[in-house]
Design goal:
28% strand; 243 residues; globular; four-stranded antiparallel sheet; 34% helix; 10 strands; Rossmann fold; 8 helices; alpha/beta
């Protein structure tokens, strides 16, 4: 029996309404994502890719259709269940970093744990240090956020997303504010997390960024127009595992 998908979308449509005017954004989207995948959702500005990510990450609601998360329909979930999933099941990395200014790397990464409903206080420091180590920033653990480069700030944001050990990490244009060298470092950090078993869903408008994923879903004008396996990326991962 095949495993239950992490995410399953059926005939999803999304519209926004303002003063009686409907603006359709997503049209008849069908999508399945399994645990452990590294997926890039790629499309130009205005294509609907960020709206789709917000729905998948429980930041927005679909208009019609069905969204199953670990086999459970999300449309019937009560607010408490949705809040628990947001706190424990998913995490986000945004283009703008969203770090607390003049606050240490450690304290920025600790922040989500203060709101986590199940992680004991005694485990917080250990988890935070492990997440910072995972993104290779232990040598900056006591630095304040304004003392970091753009690439380092984004890696702190990744550590903060990782610290609650969510089922899936969403990354919305994580290299959008970075130079090419810093962008490569950030994508390497995401690839490392994926190699360790984390599910990554990346939103980008850049093909070169999407190529870091093992699967690329193209979206244009609110419709999925392509779903390809990045065999070059998968082959590189297999070769690495054999070393």
């Amino acid at each position: 029996m095949p495993p239950t998908p992490l995410i399953e979308i059926r005939q999803l449509n999304k519209s926004y309404f303002n003063d009686g005017l409907e603006t359709p954004v997503l049209h008849d989207v069908n999508l399945t994502i399994q645990d452990g995948e590294f997926v890039a959702i790629m499309g130009p500005s205005g294509s609907g890719k960020s709206t789709l990510m917000h729905i998948l990450g429980f930041l927005d609601r679909l208009t019609t259709g069905q969204y199953l998360f670990r086999g459970e329909p999300t449309e019937s979930m009560d607010p408490d269940t949705l809040a628990r999933i947001r706190a424990t099941g998913v995490s986000f990395v945004f283009q703008a970093f969203n770090l607390l200014p003049r606050t240490s790397v450690l304290d920025n990464v600790l922040l989500p744990l203060y709101y986590h409903p199940t992680i004991p206080v005694k485990e917080r420091l250990q988890r935070a240090r492990r997440a910072i180590e995972d993104v290779d920033l232990m040598d900056r653990i006591d630095f304040q956020s304004h003392q970091l480069s753009g690439g380092q700030k984004q890696r702190v944001a990744i550590a903060r997303a990782l610290v609650t050990e969510p089922g899936v990490i969403f990354a919305d244009e994580p290299t959008g504010n970075l130079d090419s060298r810093s962008g490569i470092q950030v994508m390497a950090a995401l690839q490392k997390l994926h190699a360790e078993g984390h599910t990554i869903i990346l939103v980008t408008h850049e093909r070169i960024t999407a190529e870091h994923a093992e699967r690329i879903i193209a979206i244009h004008d609110g419709r999925v127009t392509g779903d390809e396996r990045n065999f070059r990326r998968r082959l590189a991962k297999e070769e690495l595992s054999l070393k």
